[in-house]
Amino acid sequence: MSVNISIPHNFIAVEGPIGVGKTTLARKLSEVLSSDLILEEAEENPFLERFYQDPKSGALPTQLYFLFQRVRQLQDVRQSDMFSPVRVADYLMEKDRLFARSTLDQDELRLYEQVYQNLTIDAPKPDLVIYLQASVPVLLDRIKKRGRVAENPVTKEYLQTICDAYTDFFYYYDESPLLIVNASGIDLVENEADFNMLLDQIKSTTTGRNYFNPHPA
Fold this sequence. Notes:
Blueprint: E1 11-15, H1 22-33, E2 36-38, H2 48-53, H3 55-79, E3 87-89, H4 94-103, H5 106-118, E4 128-133, H6 136-146, H7 156-172, E5 178-182, H8 192-204, E6 209-212
């Protein structure tokens, strides 16, 4: 149920590795802020299951599908009125390159970069990025609990690679205000106390790099 909450942001992006809860958090934020919701809709990617089963053969088509999907979505945002309702997305455009550099071989990456550059992406920048972190064992447990067949082959090693890539990326990230959240021991969707603590942090985060490391409620 929507409530009337005012925040100093027009465009919020939620990021983090597979299983950390970014889509569910984005949905909850969109609900309580009465905002537009932009999701990457991974289940629509017909190559994703193949990639998890055989990363070498499935990486390039999987990555190109996501690239085209994200470009299309963010072009729609760019062409619409950015001063209309708050928007919440469960990804950053830069995430596409992060995954490409983690999963493609050198020849594939060169081809991907050519496609990326030719799309002349001018994605709108969020005025707040929420980066959710969790340990690899926590991520594996959450992936198992949600029971998506396509994700069954996801390995500890792959998740560690992605987590390391996110850590490196956000170490240097300075394009938008950043809120780094330790989400390992809290439930930001089902536990209202946890979520309300985060919401207070979101309201107060308008510049720089910020950290939210709550104790489980």
